[in-house]
Each structure stands twice: as structure tokens, then as C-alpha cells.
């Protein structure tokens, strides 16, 4: 499809054209990106090597942190590099690759959040059947299905993107490549493609959000029958999950469930969705999770003890 286009590269306008603000963008988002990678890597390592974090919830949290790191990496490094570039050029192929990666890891985030909600539902509402339903083999199969589903979703997005002919201009009023800003540059009527985009990405975001919120309402309603200590622990876990769900799905629904129109806050919403949320997730899951904090302390003490013996 690329051979049919007269455009072989795009110019990203980024978040700002002001040189001073560009430096501020670099500093702020460098801190965010490093914090995202370090925070999620810390969760991944802790879950991997801590014997106390072997439950399905932490199994899914492992993959959520992995997806968050990759999701942020699909946009943040280019945003940082472009902060020092006078002309923010991205080739057609790199643009398509970014669209694929953005939707692959973003969709993986959504699937893992659904699995985490299902895990909490079974643990709280059907505790006697929990060991049988949430077996290790079942969790592994669910993650494999999530990767397959995310891959199929991303392929669908790429097929839509490759159908867009570009004959100029090639200025993308965004800091990354995605279907919404690309639709504005296409030399064709994009109504049908936007309809497919809304029915794909928009439907996934909206339906998943509704399912998740209903499941957590059922979970919170069922906590009435638990002891005070059990309610406190379950509420702490569910509150963390609900916070992450709202932070993830709010911007996603705003971006992908509307007609092909642009708003001044679009780029900032996208920044929060692609960089802000992956940064906040590890903070939410560690600060509000006593088991995770204790496991991190134990691993840190073991590391210090092993280093002192050398």
C-alpha cells in the first residue's frame, strides 16, 4: 500500500513548538518514563523472585507491568528525542510500527485488567472454588489468549491504517502516530474507516469498562458478608484496581469512541493515557499493597545480605 502514497514520511508537530517548553517537556517526561520503566521493572523482578507472590493476582500484575513498560516505550522515547529535534520526522514504516505497538500493548493492558477483575471476583464471591477455577494452567491459557487477541486487534488497526492513501500534507498534529490523527491526512472519505475504528477500539474500551465496573460493583456488594478484616483487605485491593481501571479507560474511551473531530485537549489526554497511566500504575499497586511492599523489603534485605558476605 505504501507504493500508492506520495508521502513516505510524516512530520510530528509534537506537544509544543516553543524551544523552552520543549526542554521542559523533555525533563518532565524523561522523569515519567524512567519512573515507569524502573517502577514496573521493580514489580516484575519482585513477583518473579518472591516466593510469597505466587497467587494469580500477582501473575496477572506481572504481565500488566510488562505491558505498561512496553506501552510507554512505544511512544515516550520518540517524544523525548523529538524534544531536541527541529524537525520531528517519522518514516511511513516507523509510523505504522508505532500504531501496531501502541494498540498491541494497550489492548494487552485491557485484557489483563479484565483477568485481574475476574480473579478478584472468584476470590471474593466464590472462595471455595477459587483454587479450582484460577489454576496456574488456566492463568497461563488466559495470558496466551490475551496476547493472541491483542495481536489480532493490532493487525486490524494496521490494515485500516494501510488502506489510507496519503498525498500531502504530511504534518501530524500529534506527538505519535495513531489512527485518529492519520485519518485527518488521508486523501479519501474516512467515514467508514472511522466507523470501523470506533466499532473496534471504541467498542473494546467501552464494553470492557462496563464489564469491569459491573464486576467490581458485584464484588463490593458481596463484601457485606465478610468479616471486618476481610472487607478491609478486599477493599484495599479492589480500590487499587478500580483506580487503575478509571485512569486507563477514561482517556481511552474519550479518544476512540467519538466522530473524527479534534479537540484542544486531545494530545494531553493521549499523553496521560500513554505515559501518565503506566507511570501511576506501579505507584498505585505498591503503595496500597502491603504484600508487595513486604516482598520488596525482603528481596532488598536478601540482596544487601548477599552483597555483604562477598
TrEMBL record:
A GO CC annotation recorded here is: plasma membrane
Task: List UniProt keywords, sorted A-Z.
Answer: Cell membrane, G-protein coupled receptor, Membrane, Olfaction, Receptor, Sensory transduction, Transducer, Transmembrane, Transmembrane helix
From what superkingdom does this record's organism come?
Eukaryota
Any matching Pfam family: 7tm_4
SUPFAM superfamilies referenced in this protein's UniProt entry, alphabetically: Family A G protein-coupled receptor-like (SSF81321)
**What function does this protein fulfil?**
Putative odorant or sperm cell receptor.
The protein here is known as Olfactory receptor
Q: Which gene encodes it?
A: LOC111149758
Amino acid at each position: 500500500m505504501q507504493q500508492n502514497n506520495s508521502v513516505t514520511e510524516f512530520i510530528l508537530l509534537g506537544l509544543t513548538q516553543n524551544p523552552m517548553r520543549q526542554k521542559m517537556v523533555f525533563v518532565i517526561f524523561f522523569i515519567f518514563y524512567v519512573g515507569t520503566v524502573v517502577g514496573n521493572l521493580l514489580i516484575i523482578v519482585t513477583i518473579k523472585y518472591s516466593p510469597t507472590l505466587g497467587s494469580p493476582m500477582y501473575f496477572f500484575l506481572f504481565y500488566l507491568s510488562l505491558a505498561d513498560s512496553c506501552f510507554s516505550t512505544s511512544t515516550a522515547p520518540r517524544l523525548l528525542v523529538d524534544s531536541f529535534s527541529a524537525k520531528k520526522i517519522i518514516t511511513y514504516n516507523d509510523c505504522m510500527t508505532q500504531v501496531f505497538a501502541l494498540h498491541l500493548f494497550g489492548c494487552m493492558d485491557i485484557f489483563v485488567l479484565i483477568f485481574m477483575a475476574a480473579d478478584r471476583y472468584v476470590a471474593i464471591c466464590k472462595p471455595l472454588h477459587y483454587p479450582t477455577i484460577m489454576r496456574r494452567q488456566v492463568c497461563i491459557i488466559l495470558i496466551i489468549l490475551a496476547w493472541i487477541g491483542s495481536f489480532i486487534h493490532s493487525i486490524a488497526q494496521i490494515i485500516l491504517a494501510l488502506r489510507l492513501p496519503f498525498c500531502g500534507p504530511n504534518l501530524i498534529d500529534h506527538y505519535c502516530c495513531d489512527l485518529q490523527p492519520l485519518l485527518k491526512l488521508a486523501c479519501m472519505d474516512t467515514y467508514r474507516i472511522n466507523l470501523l475504528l470506533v466499532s473496534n477500539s471504541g467498542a473494546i474500551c467501552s464494553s470492557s469498562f462496563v464489564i469491569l465496573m459491573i464486576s467490581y460493583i458485584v464484588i463490593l456488594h458481596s463484601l457485606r458478608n465478610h468479616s471486618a478484616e476481610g472487607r478491609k483487605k478486599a477493599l484495599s485491593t479492589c480500590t487499587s484496581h478500580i483506580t487503575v481501571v478509571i485512569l486507563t479507560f477514561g482517556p481511552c474511551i474519550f479518544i476512540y469512541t467519538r466522530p473524527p473531530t479534534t479537540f484542544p485537549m486531545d494530545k494531553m489526554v493521549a499523553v496521560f493515557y500513554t505515559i501518565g497511566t503506566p507511570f501511576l500504575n506501579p505507584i498505585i499497586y505498591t503503595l496500597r499493597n502491603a504484600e508487595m511492599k513486604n516482598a520488596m523489603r525482603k528481596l532488598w534485605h536478601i540482596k544487601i545480605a548477599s552483597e555483604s558476605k562477598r
